[in-house]
Amino acid sequence: MTAIQARRRKGPASAANRIWDAGPLTKAVLAFALVLSAFPIYYMFIMATRTNDEALDTPPPLLPGGHLGENVERLLATEDAYFATGLINSIIIATTVTVSVVIISTLAGFAFAKLRFRGSKILLGSILLTMMVPLQQMGIVPLYEMMVNLGWTGQIQAVILPFLVNGFGVFMMTQYTTQAVPDELVEAARVDGASTMRIYANVILPAVRPGMAVLALLTFMQNWNEFMWPSIVLNPENPVVQTSIAALNQAHGTDYVMLFTGTAASVLPLVIVFVAFGRQIVGGLMEGAVKA
Amino acid sequence: MTLNVDTPAPARREGPRRSSGHRGSGRGGSGLARFDLRATPYFLVSPYFLLFAVFGLFPLGYTAWVSLHDWELAGDKTFLGLDNYVELIADGSFWNAVLNTVGIFIISTIPQLVMALMLANALNKRIRGRLFFRLGILLPLVTSVVAVAVVFTQLYGRDYGMINWFLGLFGVEAIEWQNQSWSAWIAISTMIDWRWTGYNAIILLAAMQTIPKDLYEAASLDGASPRRQFWQITVPMLRPTLIFVVFVSTIGGLTLYAEPVMFEGNPTMAGGATNQYQTVAMFIVKEAFRDFDMGYASAAAWLLFALILIGILINYSFTRRIGGKK
């Protein structure tokens, strides 16, 4: 939108406006950044299609080979990595956590953005404060003891429960709801006698759906990529995808191409989602950003 | 979107107007409606706070309690007072972990912020395929730390790694990246920077786009060079966002864990033969789950929190001064 506005402007300002055109240097910087960003991911997928001999060539191979199938077979046949179990566990965990975080955050975000109640500022402020606390590290001993007492170590609910709430989610949905729903709409629904929950269902939910989608994607990514807590509370026989790769790395680190096949498989779902919903993700991130 | 913590909900008319609106709602008169207005907000925020109390607040407080004990999971729990903290402050290996963490944080964050600023500035220009470029630099965000570490550890391999091969073209001898502090710190920092620079650039870009273009036009007419405009207009206007980015980087950087663990390739948490890249988070996990000294680990966790608060304060006062000449 800003670009269009700028382009429309004529007259004396147009000379000054030219500084907004990307020069050759800018284009070169961006192209370089693009290559740097994409290369390691590209490399991951290339290595997954090669043999170990080829992987050790100098210079290393830069084009795909034809050995993906056998690498995948060997990966799935490597019993001590439990890769398939890890994939399934990660899908279950990330999905459950995402649903919970999105629902809880949308409800709380509605209350903080559009309802007036005693203590709301303090409560919202306390959420912001706790975002500063490294809960993972701070809570690691008590959480572990809690899971031992519940008999849940080694089971995936031990990884699900601590992540069911997320201060960032509430913060983001509060920001989003504030922007996306005009106060007049809520007011009008009140005048028509709608209860708070009805307003939530009929006015808020339809309006904040894009924000929910972005939060869902970010939450899914974050939990799919979680490493520290699962590596402590789960055991090697029942891993998540990340700890499974760590196990592969440790026990079969010399089998580069198999390791890279697992890594590529763990990244692939997110890359697909990212490409499919890229526009929304970028938009959501930019809307949720703290601005001047 | 601004960081409006105290969202001032525009005056919502109370009382008579609202009760007049309940005609024919058929949901049981104004008593219920008033209860709805008063209580429902708490009901809406309660799931968050209930779960947070159990999985956030309780562990936090309990860690403090554990840190005052010689605490074994299934064994004795002897009250020690502040002994764990006293011991920790005299523990060279703890300070080594602090040094590594802070060192990696500094050599990763400063170049990262500079690069993110440059990238955001470049993305803020008119260019074809804007979305494509934005998506491209954000792509690293979707890869997991574990995947990043696997790829980079291979790229940093001594004999077959691409980075040594590349440096070799310029006559640099093969480096054993894991062996020295400086090289391990650099290797780990590049993993962090690769993953986060694009994200920070997008956040900074979002803020850049809210800066009124008139400011630049006026400056151009006054003959200010683009470089000067960048430092005199863009950077000062970005200050709130920079504070936020530095804040998030500080927390992330000081709790660094997955990159060095994967770089090492085994779960001993040693961080190299001479602990040259053991971070505080690794130190905590090692004390708690390798040496089973939960009390000591909990004390270290609280000192880590103190470290983060100090880091945030330093960075805040530093960032606040950027372009702060009023």
Write the layout of secondary structure elements.
The complex is a heterodimer of chains A (292) and B (326).
Chain A: H1 2-8, H2 13-17, H3 24-47, H4 52-55, H5 68-77, H6 83-114, H7 120-130, H8 135-138, H9 140-150, H10 157-160, H11 167-180, H12 183-191, H13 196-224, H14 228-233, H15 241-251, H16 256-276, H17 278-288
Chain B: H1 16-20, H2 29-66, E1 69-71, E2 77-79, H3 83-89, H4 92-123, H5 130-138, H6 145-155, H7 162-169, H8 181-208, H9 213-221, H10 226-237, H11 239-254, H12 258-264, H13 280-289, H14 294-321
Antiparallel strand pairs in B: 1-2
Helix pairs in contact in B: 4-8, 4-11, 5-8, 6-8, 6-12, 11-14, 13-14
Q: N- to C-terminal separation of chain B?
A: 25 Å
What is the overall number of helices of chain B? 14
Total helices of chain A: the number is 17
Biggest sheet features of chain A: none
The stretches of 5 or more residues of chain B where confidence is low (pLDDT under 50) are: 1-28
Arithmetic mean pLDDT of chain B: 84
State the assembly state of the protein chains: heterodimer
Distance between the termini of chain A: 18 Å
Q: Can you write the helix and strand succession of chain B as a string?
A: HHEEHHHHHHHHHHHH
Shape of chain B: globular
Rg value of chain B? 26 Å
Q: In this structure, how is the largest beta sheet of chain B organized?
A: 2 strands, antiparallel
Helix content of chain B: 55-70%
Class by helix and strand content of chain A? mainly alpha
Question: Please, could you describe this protein's structure?
Answer:
The complex is a heterodimer of chains A (about 290) and B (about 325). Chain A has 17 helices and no strands. With about 290 residues, chain A is mainly alpha-helical. With about 325 residues, chain B is mostly helical. At the A-B interface, helix 1, helix 2, helix 3, helix 6 and helix 7 of A face helix 1, helix 2, helix 4, helix 5 and helix 6 of B.
Give a quick rundown of the structure.
Chain A is mainly alpha-helical and about 290 residues long. Helices cover about 75% and strands about 0% of the residues of chain A.
